Amino acid sequence: MPLSFNSLSHGNIAFGFFNIESDMLLLENLFFFADDFCRALEELSDRENTGPSTCLLTAYSIDDPRDIGDLMGAIHKVRYTGFIGRVYALFPFPDDEAGFKQKPQGLASRKIITEMIEGVSNPRSIVIKVPWTDQIHIGPYTFTARVFRDLILYVWQGGFPRWKDEIRPPYVIAMKKRLQKTCHPVFKGVFSS
Hints:
The protein is an alpha+beta fold. The chain contains seven helices and eight strands; from the N terminus they run ββββαβααααβββαα.
């Protein structure tokens, strides 16, 4: 379930997993896969210079909110509109809320999710820019380093409702290991607690 995070550029915005069968994340109207996001974080954390680190992330932009859909309506099985509605029609919210856990094998649905989103989106490369100070940029959205770290921890935890049986996909574990070794001040200490 996406949560609200404070951005410097757009106020409170939604970020997170939106369906337990997929590893796709949404960032307001941008959608991208969690494994791509984790690999981008690894790449950025490897940069050891004093200037800003940047990398590209493939994202799908849905500009019309009607094409995004109604997450709560889809969860409650009353309104399957837009891209999110089509995902929930195929992968409905579990009848037993105890089954509401992010599945670590979300990569398995990537082909079908990609086909679904390509019909309503504009795929593009967005820039993630991480300076050695505050104000991290993900596409058009700007965050403080603290909130950016919260986004990273959200993915590590499997968002809300967390990873099923606390089993994380290999790409999330690899991201944590890499970030624990970095000297980059934006990433340093994100997993210290």
